[in-house]
Amino acid sequence: MTKLLVVLGATGLQGSSIINAVQKYDPACKIRGITRDTSSSESKGLVARGIEMVAVDRYSLKALGSAFMGATSIFVFTDFWQTFYETQAAPAPDYVALEHIAQDVETSQGRNTVDAAMGCLDTLEHFVLSSLPDEQAISNGKHVIPHYAAKTATVKYLQKLHGESHQGKTLWDVTSILWVGYYMENWFNAHSRPKKSLTCRMHQTGDQTYRIRTPMPPDKPLAIIATIDIGRYIARFLATSAPSPAPILAVSQHRTMAQMVAAIAATTGKNIMYEQVTPAQYSKEAPGIGRVLAKMYAFMDEFGYCSDVKTIGAEDLGIDKRELTTFEDFVKVRNWSLWF
């Protein structure tokens, strides 16, 4: 059987990384990309590389069913943040309400992808679902994070369908869960750019002091990833592994906030400091998103990325860690002039 990989969110950070890696490591595999807009420059670029691109708007169940037909592998990415940002743009947004709206939309996206994939069980060998740790199970209900909860809701829905089979095969039988670390690319999101400290002053050199603030302790290691490395994990997994009951944990490195800020300062030559602030202060400085991320940082501070949950890592997949991106190498090739 000719292999066909279908990638949902083909022009996004995760989807494009997976397409790039699979094309490199398994050129015989056919790839079908799913996107909202096949007329975009990113989509046209993929078509020029031999990728079949299909338009699916708003995770339509019917359209997804057609796009998944014949797939031997499916990669699914659902999106909390697009709805969050679109809703936040409204005048005087209700931040509590928009968290629930974005969570409900992503949960619906996940259910539709699962229901659509049920229709191609006869050909499907891998159903890879991009998700996040179950923060409520890990913390015994102490931590509830909207974009985590939306993704774990899809996993729970999929597990409930375990008994529905095609010729003795269920969708859960071919499912693998992907967990990815904190994107290095997040440093280029608007909420991560440094603001001048309220006590900003000029040093003798004439440089300004910048401060980066989050609620995360400066010495707490974070699981981080350059999105280019996500594809390396999935391409290797699809080529060498059977569906896994343990989540795949895609991480490039572990770095503390203090280490990352020091690397940025060394590369830019700017005087940049890291400062831990309270969740309330962080939420105030970054309305909307600060409230969501403060919950995430609180969970990571207490439990790390996923506590002691057993996962599949780079060594399990035979990935040489020297292939993966260091944060120091990442910062050297980025345009930090956007920050200052």
Termini separation comes to: 53 Å
Arrangement of strands in the largest sheet = 3-2-1-4-5-8-13
Instruction: Categorize the overall geometry.
Output: globular
Mean pLDDT: 91
The total of beta strands comes to 15
Order of helices and strands: EHEHEHEHHEHHEEEEEEEHEEHEHHH
> Which class do the helix and strand fractions yield?
alpha/beta
Let me know the largest β-sheet.
7 strands, parallel
pLDDT under 50 segments (min length 5)? 198-205
How helix-rich are the residues, as a percent range? 25-40%
User: Helical stretch count?
Assistant: 12
**Cα gyration radius (Å):** 21 Å
Proportion of β residues?
Answer: 15-25%
Task: Note the main attributes of this structure.
340 residues, alpha/beta, seven-stranded parallel sheet, three-stranded mixed sheet, 12 helices, 18% strand, globular
Description:
There is one protein chain. The protein has 340 residues and is of the alpha/beta class. The protein has twelve helices and 15 strands. It has helices at 13-25, 41-48, 61-68, 81-88, 95-117, 135-138, 146-160, 228-240, 257-268, 279-285, 289-303, 327-332, and strands spanning 4-8, 30-35, 52-55, 73-76, 126-131, 165-166, 169-170, 175-180, 182-183, 195-196, 209-214, 222-225, 248-250, 253-255, 271-276. The strands form four sheets. Strands 3-2-1-4-5-8-13 form a seven-stranded parallel sheet, sandwiched between helices. Helix 1 (13-25) crosses helix 8 and helix 3 crosses helix 5 (95-117). The longest helix is centred in the N-terminal third of the chain and has 23 residues, at 95-117.
